[in-house]
Amino acid sequence: MSSTTSISPAVLIVGAGPVGSVLALTLLKNGIPVRIIDKAGPQIGQKGAGIQPRSLEMHHFLGTLPDFLSVAQSIPICTIYKIPGGTEILKTFELNPHEEPKPDTPYINSMVLGQYRQQSILHRHLKKYGCEVEFHTELRSFEQSDDHVLANIVKKSPDGAEIPEAMKVPYLVGTDGAHSTIRRALGLTFLGDTRDDVSSVIGDIEIKSGLNHETWHFWGEGSTKMVFLIPAEVDKNIFTMMVTGKELDHAKTASGRDELVKTITFVTERNDIEFGDLIWMSHYRPNIRMVNKFGEGRVFVAGDAAHVHSPAGGQGTNSGVQDSFNLGWKLALILKGLSPSSLLNTYTEERLPVIAAMLGKTMDLLNRGRDKPAADESKWKRGTEFKQLGVNYRGSSTLVDETTDLTKELIRSDSYSLASDGVIHAGDRAPQAPDLEDLRANRAATSLFDIFGPDHHTVLIFSSVRSEGEEITSKLSGYSKGLFKTVLILPALSESELIASVKQSSGFDLVLRDGCGHAYKVYPTLPGPCTVIVVRPDGVVGAIVRGIDGLLQYVNGVFVALA
Ligand SMILES: Cc1cc2nc3c(=O)[nH]c(=O)nc-3n(C[C@H](O)[C@H](O)[C@H](O)COP(=O)(O)OP(=O)(O)OC[C@H]3O[C@@H](n4cnc5c(N)ncnc54)[C@H](O)[C@@H]3O)c2cc1C
């Protein structure tokens, strides 16, 4: 079969798992046309079901959150059963004790939703932009030059025929999972360990009767033999299972449905559980590995293609989608000719230390819990850093921070958790501030999270002094419309001061009153008439500065100079 050559969209995304899908949606929201291919059909299986609060925030910005929340669940109570017998409760505990949301952290509790459901929501959102995932389409090889990538892809038709295509694209991103073709072809290293000592059998199985859906069910001890059965959120008769422990023959257990059921029955000592179909199963050994850099030239990797680790702590998908969210806006600005290609260096600069810290934390969790008795609650305890709200890029080269008299060491202390000074710095997650009154829209309530977005920088000006802000809006007006959203945030002022401020602030996209003080409380204000805080499209603070000079330093570091 001869190959066709097509002039194609700006980015080819290889792999339509959660990570590729989030990248596609971020680019489409920026007006960048993409193609997204997957060598398989739609994925099956619960797998990466744990969704961390930082990912919920990302879904808020992407507009996918309502669909996620309509089906996702809070993490239920866990029940450990006594052996022998397997029916009497030994202990119940909360894996993630419920926390009350706060104004600056509205999504504070982790949730669960099967990975295949997460993907289908994302794929539905891609369709709104006219983008269909091209299933059964495989990337076989690629070559890159200074100005493009030539990708050789092959589509398999239902009759098994292969239709090759050579696709010329400015950028190629491999979100093609742990066995990434793209990572290998780029020659990126993937150093680390394979943990044969903690192998397990994982998968999803139908349970027709015998177990309730309200709790996660655990039997046995991880050091010898243990079974988890975890009900799915939507398809209530589907349970995720994990069978582990050195007294079990994992290869035999994974050899088929009947062997699996036999092992589960042996460990749980329960004959009253009626099993149905096996959905999928795998003999799994955690690999703990990461790349040395996230790309080369015009080709990048994200998600499992760049890092793999133990599922303990539920960080895999969550970290991968944040790779995509970091990369997406940078690629979009470069493709529009608004940023220099060197901006892409910050993708590795920012994500590599975060992923290195994550590998350390998940490995620690795996090792710490391994030999502890199941009834010991500390075995299951996860630190709050697993919610990923403290993940930060402090010290990254394009950030500008005039807040600080702190030492650089403290600022960069840990890319996974914030330093304990309690002050927001450039590189941190930009917090939410609700109950803001939009003074140009009859004081309608709005919030910062409703203003941030993946296709623009938000410039927050904390000031009641008009002249400073005006200079800022006039400088930014030279950039294309929509690139910056300028927001004047007024403190709680008297009614007459308020009317005067609104009349005098026509240059801003939004004028908000922080009557409840949430924004002024959580964002730092610097000495002087005004503090300017730039929030990047990925919801990260890009700059905290006193005025126009600091702002221009940030802008000149990220964008090409105005003609
Ligand atoms: C038991 C278990 C539990 C887990 N629990 C959690 C959890 O609670 N929370 C969490 O965050 N993570 C969890 N994870 C990790 C999570 O599943 C992965 O990190 C996640 O799937 C990575 O997503 P991805 O999009 O990078 O890769 P994948 O989901 O692996 O998708 C890669 C896609 O690329 C396609 N592909 C591969 N090669 C090619 C090619 N050459 N051409 C075209 N397509 C190609 C594949 O078909 C596949 O669809 C868990 C993992 C396991 C095993």
From TrEMBL:
Would you tell me the protein name for this molecule? FAD binding domain-containing protein
Which keywords has UniProt assigned to this entry? FAD, Flavoprotein, Oxidoreductase
Q: State its cofactor.
A: FAD
What InterPro entries does this protein map onto? FAD-bd, FAD/NAD-bd_sf, PHOX_C_sf, RIFMO-like
Record-linked PANTHER family? BINDING MONOOXYGENASE, PUTATIVE (JCVI)-RELATED, TRK SYSTEM POTASSIUM UPTAKE PROTEIN
Q: Which domain of life is it from?
A: Eukaryota
Q: Which residues form the FAD-binding domain?
A: 10-359
